[in-house]
Amino acid sequence: MTRLAAWQAGLVRAIDATAEGDIYLTSAVDTPGLSTRQGCSVYRNSSRSARIQALQETFEVCRRLVGDECFAAFATGFVECSPSRHADLNRFGAGFAEHVAVTVAGQPSLTAYPWLGDLVCLEWLCHAIYYRDNDAAFEPGNLNGLDPAEATLVPAHRVAWLRSAWPVHQIWELHRQHAEPPALQIESGDWYLVIERRDYQAEVTLTEQALWRLLDACAGHPSIVQLAADPTLPVGRLGELLTRGWIRVARTTADVV
Q1: What is the phi-psi region of residue 245: left when phi exceeds 0, alpha when psi lies from -120 to 50, beta otherwise?
Q2: Residue 171's CB: how many other CB atoms inside 10 A?
Q3: Residue 93 backbone zone (phi > 0: left; psi -120 to 50: alpha; other: beta)
Q4: In this predicted model, what pLDDT tens digit does every residue of 174-203 receive, in sequence order?
Q5: Rounded to an integer, what distance in angstroms lies between the CA atom of residue 155 and that of residue 160?
Q6: Can you give the pTM of this predicted structure?
């Protein structure tokens, strides 16, 4: 690592530091009239406020359900242990669902929300696919004479999927509107969801277990031969995934962009 890169990494850690005597703070050079600790504090407060605001905008349904005060506690706890690794705050929040799920599990006052972690995960996927890159244009000629053993199956960038023990797609749909939603009887079960980006909007589709498992199996970029080796997968339905645009075919993993 170059000296510049080391300094930049140290500055990031210093801005997010909270413990007294942090090595990155004590080793920095103070400037007249403002200590390094005071300067980092200014940036720290600004950075954390920006990240909390980003979470509020991304997880509007969660905030509406639990209230501003509870959501602020979720967001503050997450931000304190989750520095932003990307310049674009639209990409911040990937681990928020896990943080919420762990918090809910540890708080007796939140036992009425066992599904909240999955709901937040769904919100994140709906948000994240909006900012994903488009898939490369499909060129049929690239697959001419292709040996099935060399064909790699990959999920499309505009698609994500989620399995939940709760009807979080219904909760999300009812509470994303500003009008007061009707009462919803929430019972556990088994739901297989696919999230698609269509015309720059996220659409959530309830699908069947077999097709969902086939899509999920493509996450590892397997070949058709590898998929066919699993007798529990409905490989004969790969055409449905291709027709829906949920997966793509590439010659090798090097062709996946």
Answers
A1: left
A2: 21
A3: left
A4: 888 766 766 677 899 999 999 999 988 999
A5: 8
A6: 0.79
